[in-house]
Amino acid sequence: MTAPYVQQRFMSGFAAGPGTNKVPSFADYTKERSNDSSRAFTYFMLGASGAVLTTAAQSTVHGFLTNLSASADVLAMATTEMDLSTIPVGKTVTIKWRGKPVFVKHRTQEEIDDANGVNLKSLPDPQDDASRVQIPEWM
């Protein structure tokens, strides 16, 4: 006796009546394997399909990444060049970059010493002068 949760399987749904074990034959639908040209054609089609799929995937990724890159007008606004030798010591120049002001200051030695002498604990956003500037005289 089987447990109630086990499904009992029969030999075939093709049986004509109780007690028969007739299994259908698919011989009419199979083809002979003596012809190697069909195997070569199958491999050729598989390789060609893979090549087409790879090209389509590459084209899709390329199109997606092209849409993500910045356009020429954005790149033109992203760069600004300025001659720093025209800024005298102790003066600040304001230039416009992407529509916003950027301040460039040529600091004196006294201003550099004052910035280095500040107590960092008294600042709301403590950051020493060496981490804010690459060249001490320019800020």
Characterize the structure shown.
The protein is mainly alpha-helical. It has helices spanning 36-68, 72-78, 109-116, 129-132, and strands at residues 92-97, 100-105. The protein has a two-stranded antiparallel sheet. The relative contact order is 0.06.
Oligomer: single chain
Strand order of the largest sheet: 1-2
N to C succession of SSEs: HHEEHH
Q: Estimate the global geometry from the Cα principal axes.
A: elongated
Mean pLDDT over the residues:
80
Helix content: 25-40%
Strand content: 5-15%
Please describe the structure with a list of short key phrases separated by commas or semicolons.
2 strands, 9% strand, 4 helices, 139 residues, mainly alpha, two-stranded antiparallel ribbon
Q: What is the strand and helix layout of this fold?
A:
Layout: H1 36-68, H2 72-78, E1 92-97, E2 100-105, H3 109-116, H4 129-132
Antiparallel strand pairs: 1-2
What's this model, at a glance?
By secondary structure, this protein is mostly helical.
